[in-house]
Amino acid sequence: MLKINDRMPEFKILTDQGEFKISNHIGKKIVVFFFPKADTSGCTAESIAFTNLQKEFDQLNCIVIGISKDNPKKQSKFREKHNLTCKLGADFENDVCEQFGVWVEKSMYGRKYMGIQRATFLSNEKGVITNVWEKVKVQGHAEDVLKAVEKISK
Predict the structure, then answer these.
(1) Active-site positions?
(2) Is the pTM for the entire model greater than 0.85?
(3) What is the pLDDT of residues 89-130, one digit of tens each?
(4) DSSP string, 47-92
(5) Domains along the chain?
(6) CA nearest 80: which of 21, 50, 39?
(7) What single-letter DSSP state applies at residue 124?
(8) Count of other CB atoms within 10 angstroms of residue 148
């Protein structure tokens, strides 16, 4: 998994609204949050929490993108159903999850499978990761990320 002081990987990914490239956002802070599956309870709550704070992130010159392995069509339905405003990346054919180290072996009821570990990364305007949240608990998380963005904005 990427760590504090690592560089944000140079990636491009399809979103439900077109292509997103990190290089198009040089000079901005970037929040990348990874979620396991669109339209599930925890992922919905997390995405809504980031949406509710979208104006505050915008005022701090910060882009917010959520990424899962869902395809763009599913991300689009997810956005529409919950009125989401954050960008939604579709890592269904890419390796962005692998670049960040969040595509991991998981276990449920004794069955092992590959899946996304819920995690969030914040980079400053120079593309250096300043904060990493591993194994995120959704409650209060978006607010914690906003506080970190405010701190690096001073």
Answers:
(1) 43
(2) yes
(3) 999 977 999 999 999 999 889 999 999 999 999 999 999 999
(4) HHHHHHTHHHHHHTTEEEEEEESS-HHHHHHHHHHHT--SEEEE-S
(5) 12-152 (3.40.30.10)
(6) 39
(7) -
(8) 18
